[in-house]
Amino acid sequence: MRKRMIPVCIPLLGEKELEYVTDCIKTNWISSKGKYVEEFEEKFAKYCGCKYGITTTSGTTALHLALASINTKKGDEVIMPASTMIATAFAVIYCGAKPVLVDAEPETWNIDVEKIEEKITNKTKAIMPVHIYGHPCDMDPIMKITEEHELYVIEDAAEAHGAEYKGKKTGGIGDIGCFSFYANKIITTGEGGMVVTNDEEIADRAKSLRNLCFPKEKRVYLHSEVGYNYRMTNIQAAIGLAQFERIDELAEMRRRNAHLYNKYLKSVKGITLPIEKEWAKNVYWMYSILIEDEFGMSRDELMNELEKRGIETRTFFISMHEQPVFWEMGLFEGESYPVAEELARTGMYLPSSSGLKEEEIKFICDVIKEIKELVKCTKT
Ligand SMILES: Cc1ncc(COP(=O)(O)O)c(C=O)c1O
């Protein structure tokens, strides 16, 4: 018999999702036209403090669409954290532009704002802060730098639905915000994403690029630009709207999980717990920890032991400058980002589903403590 695993993350879907999806099927509105797309875009954008929402097929395509909408092209540079999910960098590559990396800062694991300015050149087009694992970036210094240098800010808020920086929702602070609705995100559409903005021109351009640059006026098949089909379906948006209706509850569940983990793990030596800066509301997309030498075994050894005991985990992302795909392109040669490297070596996340029960969290923490005790015994 297969052992039951506690998965790293599963979605929480309910009757509303079923009702709205059933409505799409019963009414035949299954492609990208339909009331759920519009309603989901309008409501989610407003939630982020934005006028316009443009749904897409994924977080990756949302990032690409955002960059394309501000006309990012060959020769441009886009500043981003070294420690992020690869889609942030790929989106820049799709535009023919060059990702320029900045190390992480050790407390929040986000882009180190003190190290941004030294990376700005006359080719810099935009800065893409990533609100990693649900903790917002320190946005004020980023906004100040970009104002001074007249750069765009594209927030990669794929992991940070509902997170706040000084009371403002992430995704709604910069010129453009990008979200992912993959199944492990705080709200999901299965696969999907959204671009949010307050800039009408950017919104219009994003809508056109998303839909193969069809002419606005009439459905004539004359195109003057290359566009993409990044349209979300009404079925996906139906799930998204149902999820959106409980977004605060879902984010609160992630926060509750994090507080429970913190409570049960705070006394364990050798584990660094995630933090919440005084200016931040962290939504703890994934409950992320660092395994220090003092723990007595490596992060990878701990992950193996947890897997044997039915607990699924994941490592942190591997830094962009350590990706073979970019070396092949001649990027990041000889560059070093010590904080990002250390995070990739020691970081992992524990099961983080919104629907986790307290007894499961306690069980996971007890297992971690038991494993630590075992290494202590074998080493003495
Ligand atoms: C920071 C970040 N950016 C972008 C993405 C890409 O989103 P998607 O998987 O929906 O394409 C992800 C996905 O997890 C992410 O974590």
Summarize the structure.
The protein is an alpha/beta fold. The chain contains 12 helices and 14 strands. A hairpin with a 2-residue loop joins strand 6 and strand 7.
The CATH architecture term of the largest domain is 3-Layer(aba) Sandwich
Structural class designation: alpha/beta
Count of the domains: 2
Give the mean pLDDT.
Answer: 96
The Rg value, from CA coordinates, equals 21 Å
| CATH topology tier name of the largest domain | Aspartate Aminotransferase, domain 2
CATH homologous superfamily title of the largest domain: Type I PLP-dependent aspartate aminotransferase-like (Major domain)
Largest sheet geometry: 7 strands, mixed
N→C terminal distance? 36 Å
The dominant shape is: globular
Describe the secondary structure blueprint for this structure:
Elements: H1 15-27, H2 35-47, E1 52-56, H3 59-69, E2 77-81, H4 86-94, E3 98-102, E4 124-127, H5 139-149, E5 152-156, E6 164-165, E7 168-169, E8 176-180, E9 193-197, H6 200-210, H7 234-244, H8 247-265, E10 271-272, E11 280-281, E12 287-291, H9 299-308, E13 314-315, H10 324-328, H11 338-346, E14 347-350, H12 358-379
Parallel strand pairs: 2-3, 2-4, 4-5, 5-8
Antiparallel strand pairs: 1-9, 6-7, 6-11, 8-9, 10-12, 12-14, 13-14
Helix pairs in contact: 1-7, 2-7, 3-4, 3-6, 8-12
The structure holds pyridoxal-5'-phosphate (PLP).
